[in-house]
Amino acid sequence: MTTAKELKNLGLEHYRAGRFEDAIAMFAQAQQAFLADADMKQAAETANDRGVAARQAARFDEAEAAFADARRLFAELGDQTAQGQVVGNLGALAESRNQNDQAASLYKEAIALFEAAGAADFQAETWRALSRLRMKQGQWFAALGAYDAGLTGVKHLTPAQRLLRRLLKTSRRLLSGG
């Protein structure tokens, strides 16, 4: 008999190979097995994995349902960082559906969850996702502001990020008349 962990690992193998339909099926089986084992954390993580695979397969309604399962389970566990990851995935799902206002709102909600959890790296990554969304919308100043906010949480900036940070600081100073 295949264990829940083995099912999840099979799902991950299928996902990495780009076999999203097979990954969805394995993750669904793994989630049920983890629930039967009363391993709520793994059940929640596997529901999130199922949502990611379903989004990649453009099965958006199924992705939304999987993310709802994951979000509920992580909320019951009190895991704000994981909740933030799921909400960020919901933001990416809304972006895939061209629901950009909803995506921005979800990214901001994820950022707040990461901030409350003290998960600076995830917070910075989500600010950058919001910045990319704003760029796609042609909202250049909002994109720069979001990117700048994302850099705030990064401990070790790359040379390009340091340069951009200095340029943003200079432009703010010039715009404010100082």
Binned strand content: under 5%
Shape: elongated
Level of helix content?
A: over 70%
- Secondary structure category: mainly alpha
Which segments are poorly predicted (pLDDT under 50) over 5 or more consecutive residues? Answer: none
Q: What is the strand tally? A: 0
- Enumerate how many helices there are, as a single number: 9
Mean pLDDT: 90
Q: Distance N terminus to C terminus?
A: 70 Å
Largest pleated sheet: none
Question: What is the alpha-carbon Rg in Å?
Answer: 19 Å
H and E order: HHHHHHHHH
Q: What does this entry look like structurally?
A:
Helices cover 83% and strands 0% of the residues. It has 178 residues and is mostly helical. Helix 1 packs antiparallel against helix 2 and helix 2 runs antiparallel to helix 3. The model has no long low-confidence stretch (mean pLDDT 90). It is built from nine helices and no strands.
Produce a short descriptive summary.
The protein is mainly α and 178 residues long. Helix content is 83%, strand content 0%.
Q: Main attributes?
A:
178 residues, mainly alpha, 83% helix
Helix/strand layout:
Elements lengths: L3 H13 L3 H17 L3 H17 L3 H18 L2 H17 L3 H18 L2 H17 L3 H13 L6 H17 L3
Helix pairs in contact: 1-2, 2-3, 3-4, 3-5, 4-5, 5-6, 5-7, 6-7, 7-8, 8-9
